Predict the structure.
Amino acid sequence: MANVVVVGAQWGDEGKGKIVDWLSERADVIARFQGGHNAGHTLVIDGEVFKLSLLPSGIVRKGKISVIGNGVVLDPWALVAEIEKLAKQGVEITPDNLMIAENAPLILPLHGELDRGREAQSSVAKIGTTGRGIGPAYEDKVGRRVIRVADLADEATLQTRVGRLLVHHDALRKGLGLPPVDVDKLMADLREIAPKVLPFAKPVWREMNTARKAGKRILFEGAQGSLLDVDFGTYPFVTSSTTISGSAASGTGMGPGSIDFVLGIVKAYTTRVGEGPFACELFDSVGEHLATVGREKGTVTGRSRRCGWFDAVLVRQTCALSGVNGIALTKMDVLDGLKELKICVAYELDGKILDYLPTAADQQARVTPIYETMEGWSESTAGARSWADLPGAAVKYVRRIEELIDCPVALLSTSPERDDTILVTDPFAD
């Protein structure tokens, strides 16, 4: 059976939630492999809206196994709150349909406090984080002092880990003008949350490999976008994990041979949330159209997304980095009514033409887009379910994108409804 990795091929917010939900109906296992509860997926199922931050999108589907892998940093309080919220919407979550990697790192309250304290420093350039502690938790993971899910089961280990952690954090907090961590309260909070989390803890690597050998279809669900990758994104305005497809295997304890198809989710224009370079950003009426018609607000933060024309340079680059086999092009209907469309086909920097985004931060901030103009369309593409339902100009726009990014369209999404999808290539085809 084919196993599929879904990654965002821009700065995130590409509509991964709908696509993952659409695919999850045919998958047996749906696994998150990186990120934290700064990720946001909005699902619309039979008219009901589900907003997820940490749980895999497959959790709303009966008969599916959802997995939070070791590559995810887990806020246990956010997890419990999300489980309780979904329960009110009729979604039952038990250890039978959700498993969490025993070696997944925990996000503690002190991580969020450190995150927000750093962003508040006027002398330091803001990165635009969500302030939820994701970055500091990954720092502690790499620094070998993080608390992991399995540690919650043993009081002696937990005390040792907390002691080591606070030696580091109290020094940082002093420099930021924050008080020392109340160790008694932290320990009490961890003891209280432990029995709510531990029933879901399993050796995910073993369960995932067993599922693969049994011929189960696995869907790996990425969070954030490829341009927020800590190595290949617009550093330092990035997230703290590896968001490209290669981390699907390491983030769940599987080998690279477990990946059969990589699906890149791509919006028909470009958006990003937070700080950082954005060569194609628009500040005119078109930008306002994209933001308004596209309802460009962050699922998790509610922050307005910055909007701009489609950047083929960036998407070609991210498709190469993740080995994308096909893209799912979303939100085509937002472009309805625009008389002309522009696509960024190259950059100009200091008199030179570039066909890629340079690594140096100052150069990323200074590149200017070179546009190709195409005819728009006045007809509606919303709800189209076949190529015949699309205006000719819309079809030309899609075909030109395929040429420029050197990658075919596998799916075309024409509304938030899961059935409003044109299937070209089935990622799960054997």
Notes: The chain has a mean pLDDT of 93.
